[in-house]
Amino acid sequence: MIQLTVKGKPSHVRHLANDPEYLFAMEFYDLTKQTTCIGKEKVAVKVTTLIRPEQWKQLLQMIADGGDTLSDANEIMMEGKMDHLPEEVYTFAPRRIMYRSHSQQKQEEKELELHEKKDKGNALKIKSTVSKRVEQLHNKYDGVCQKCGQRCDKQVVAIKKIQSKMGIICPDCKNETTFVIRDVKNQLQQDLLQRNLFSTKEEILSYFQQFCSQFVLVSHREMDRMYWSWDKTTICRTVHVSQEGMVYKVQLQQGRGILPAKPNSQVTIEGISFQVHHSSTEMRMDRIRALSDVQKASIREEEIQEQIRYYENKKTFSENIIVKRKENSKRYEVLAGYASYQAAKKIKPRHIYVKVVDVFK
């Protein structure tokens, strides 16, 4: 199976009146207004996405929640798989649909602008403290530590005599220590996974370990340090790490914002507050654990039948199904919306829309 992602604004939306499964076909044919990737590689191709009724309703809701309308929608992102690559138009049924509103983009750009101004201000403050000798040696060795090979900004290097020659060394070699990226903040991992930038937590850790060894150490303070990438094709522009080796914040390339994102909304279930990771996302039924006997006993058959009738008319449930991932498991447990979930078990769709939450960490 081939992983395909397309994002942007569709050039045309066609109503599929006679199709029993799909309601609309969204055409992404304007290559100047879209980005299409096969895996992580960008490709310039035309894409048609087939949308089911429940997906269409969900997309309209996401656009409305962002304060936009379909006619002026900002950026739609669709992700799915294909069996093979066609020659002309790539057609697929997306497994996942997301939306980035105009207001969200403006907020991300504003945060990026403030972040860049702050970085520039900090750089100007310490520029005057760098001696000419440090600048000369930094230029001579292209910013590379002569002991371990770490690339460094001239602000953080020290001068040291190495094999009868004056060279530059990084803060770790100066302090005769070894620095290792050991972990990634949980919320940051979740945000990176939810944006489909990585597939596993192991992949995330490996990426940051390579990033920090390959790119430039630009800041080194008592509590933390920062690395910067000059390569605009990388996922991250800057990476912030504690001196204990915990990656806790990143700035993405191309104005895509800073992660972890601002805290999401929260819901309270039976007196316990949960953080909302996805206000609504499509999930396979087989990824959700069956209700316990206690949960089943708390709902009446009339409630289930009411949800079935509602689904038959609206292709969605009137009561949100709220799920949380089981610890050390790939499956999810139902926290609320028992009647809707039991109705779904009887209707037997392959996918349902759920709200995904987790405990605050």
Description:
With 361 residues, this protein is α+β, with helices and mostly antiparallel strands. The chain has nine helices and 22 strands. The chain has helices at 53-65, 102-127, 132-140, 171-174, 186-194, 201-214, 293-297, 301-314, 338-347, and strands at 2-8, 12-15, 24-28, 34-38, 41-43, 46-51, 75-82, 89-92, 96-100, 158-162, 165-169, 183-184, 216-220, 224-228, 236-242, 246-252, 258-259, 266-269, 272-284, 322-325, 332-336, 351-359. The strands form five sheets. Strands 12, 13, 14, 15, 16 and 17 form a six-stranded mixed β-sheet that branches. The radius of gyration is 25 Å and the shape is elongated.
> Would you tell me which CATH topology of the domain at 2-100 applies?
OB fold (Dihydrolipoamide Acetyltransferase, E2P)
Tell how many strands the DSSP assignment holds. 22
Briefly note the structural class of the backbone: alpha+beta
Radius of gyration: 25 Å
CATH class of the domain at 2-100: Mainly Beta
Q: What is the overall silhouette?
A: elongated
Instruction: Give the overall average pLDDT.
Output: 86
Instruction: Give the DSSP E fraction (strand runs of 2 or more residues).
Output: 25-35%
- Major beta-sheet overview: 6 strands, mixed
Which descriptors apply to this entry?
Conserved hypothetical protein from pyrococcus furiosus pfu- 392566-001, ParB domain; 33% strand; alpha+beta; OB fold (Dihydrolipoamide Acetyltransferase, E2P); five-stranded antiparallel sheet; 361 residues; single chain; elongated; 22 strands; six-stranded mixed sheet
